[in-house]
Amino acid sequence: MITFAGMEQLLHYVWKHKMFPLKELMTTDGRKVEVIDSGLHNRNAGPDFFNAKVKIDGTLWVGNVEIHDRSSDWYRHGHDHDSAYDNVVLHVAGVIDSEVQTTSGQQLPQLQLDVPPMVQQQYDELLKTDQYPPCYKIIPDLSLLTVHAWMAALQTERLERKTEDIRKRADRCNGSWEDAYFVTLARNYGFGINGDAFEQWAYHVPLSAVGKHRDDLFQIEAIFMGQAGLLELDTVPAHYQKDALNEGYFAKLRNEYQYLAHKFSLQPMNVTLWRFLRLRPQNFPHIRISQLANLYYERKASLSKLIECQSVKEMQEMMRTHVTPYWETHYTFGSESPENSKHLSPFSLNLLMINTAIPMLFAYGRHASKEQLCDRAFDFLEELKAENNHIIRMWRDCGLEVKNAGDSQALIQLKKEYCDRKDCLRCRFGFEYLRKNS
Asked: Do 333 and 232 touch, CB atoms closer than 8 A?
């Protein structure tokens, strides 16, 4: 069942795309209405459509159009006391149950707009179908032009959304885009499950203090592990606690951290924020933090270095890292593991470039008005491999070709911002679905 808000959105949609019933449009007082231009759809405060052109009884009117489910909503929303609505030339509603007036008392012409039955039926199908995505039937028949145009728009939308997140981090870092890059990088080292914890950890890492010791990898790792709360005694296995206090890598790191914490007045984050349940050992915070320590030590966790990258290969080399020697044979303190390199896997490296490096290039390009960085971000997305997750597999099963990371990012945006919200009326695929047989 369509809600009142949903019906109003559907009326907006019908008006915007001129999907009118096959009969003459008339005002409530019997005057013929011809829609020359439906106007510019406004999603902010004010009338719903700006600068529409409508002929009413042969006279051309240029102005704004307001749309409601019921005409009495005009008063419920207080438009009769809002001068922003004084230049409305036509009031459109699904049900006309009252006359409407502007702040000056001028009575507005009204049009009762009926949603064509087939459009209503198609929209009901989109809302009610159990198949996911609901528009799956139409996808194989979409033209390449339609698909490519919509995917390009979605790709930009996703980068814009990530840009806003990065901008907020820069604000929290007192305007430092270098620090915001480190926070963004750290967050994505959480690979989803520990993303929030890694972001909080990054805010607890005083980079100005760490910078004073950036030539000493051991001290960097001591600060990184200590600020994560992972050098507290109760974070290590019970059987290891006695040894941990007296010898071994844990004791050395802990002693060094206590000295540096006193020197710089450091306070660690809440260690309970870290999640270990159902986490693969290579994603344990200890491993990822050691990799980040090496990345920082090698001067690779730097926005200025990222901006210098002219190719995907250079960016891959910049982001490639490994753990310190102790972690070659451990996943946590006191728990040994088979020796292996514990480098970032190609899969993880690809995700970090897609979710960290490229959005940062785009965001900083917007911030610094350097369009070449934004263009480079799009170029890199086209070169990188597409992600392989349940969202991408779903779209592939529907018949969409996913060639590169730009495509996969676009389809993740489509699923999260449109399909999950049942926002089919703003989706190009949804438009094609509604247009079919309508």
From this structure: no
